């Protein structure tokens, strides 16, 4: 992860073992990739792969070289770039060692408010996202096929209870609300204050 006040980049470079993940050369490579994604404001993996790496090669060539040197397949699998004009970009990486870890999140907050307070709030929201792993920001953002499937499973379970239609509908609605609390960020209880 690499951040400045109003923009940031988060990259995921996968390896096959923890041994390589703790290797200094791997850590340096990941750190460099995050810096390049940040400096070049890369918005796609292809854009990052084609970016210049230490003025001698591309990021893709550096990853292939890392595979050769470390003896494991390395794969650039994710890139997140966020930018805001009037606000902050904050982030959190779990197991943070020099901005690196196993999982992370970036959050952009659009507000003219106090930047330091916004950074702290953004970091807490990013921490919540890493801990709770929401699938969508709002109910409207959920994958409609997955949502329809989940509702049919719940309806089938409730049908087997042989309840009156009005009661069954309330049970389905209650279980769907519980499902939303599990997978929708705006429906989740905040981990720092679970009210």
TrEMBL record:
Residues 8-195 form the Translation elongation factor EFTs/EF1B dimerisation domain. Keywords: Elongation factor, Mitochondrion, Protein biosynthesis. It is found in: Mitochondrion. Its main location: mitochondrion. Gene3D superfamilies: Elongation factor Ts, dimerisation domain. The keyword Protein biosynthesis applies. InterPro entries: EF-Ts_dimer_sf, Transl_elong_EFTs/EF1B, Transl_elong_EFTs/EF1B_dimer, Transl_elong_Ts_CS. GO terms for molecular function: translation elongation factor activity. PROSITE patterns: EF_TS_2. Coiled coil: none annotated. Belongs to the EF-Ts family. This is Elongation factor Ts, mitochondrial. It comes from Trichonephila clavata (Joro spider). The gene is tsf.
């Amino acid at each position: 992860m690499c951040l400045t006040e109003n923009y940031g980049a988060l990259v995921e470079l996968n390896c096959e073992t923890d041994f390589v993940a703790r290797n200094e050369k791997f850590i340096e490579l990941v750190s460099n990739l995050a810096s390049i994604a940040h400096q070049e404001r890369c918005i796609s993996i292809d854009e990052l792969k084609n970016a210049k790496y230490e003025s001698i090669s591309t990021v893709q060539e550096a990853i292939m070289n890392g595979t050769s040197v470390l003896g494991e397949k390395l794969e650039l699998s994710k890139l997140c770039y966020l930018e805001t004009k009037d606000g902050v970009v904050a982030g959190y990486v779990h197991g943070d060692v020099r901005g690196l870890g196993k999982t992370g999140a970036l959050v952009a907050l659009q507000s003219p408010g106090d930047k330091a307070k916004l950074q702290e709030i953004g970091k807490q929201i990013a921490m919540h996202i890493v801990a709770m792993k929401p699938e969508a920001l709002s109910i409207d953002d959920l994958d409609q096929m997955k949502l329809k499937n989940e509702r049919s499973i719940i309806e089938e379970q409730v049908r087997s209870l042989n309840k009156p239609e009005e009661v069954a509908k309330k049970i389905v609605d209650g279980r769907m609300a519980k499902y939303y609390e599990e997978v929708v960020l705006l429906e989740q209880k905040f981990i720092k204050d679970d009210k």
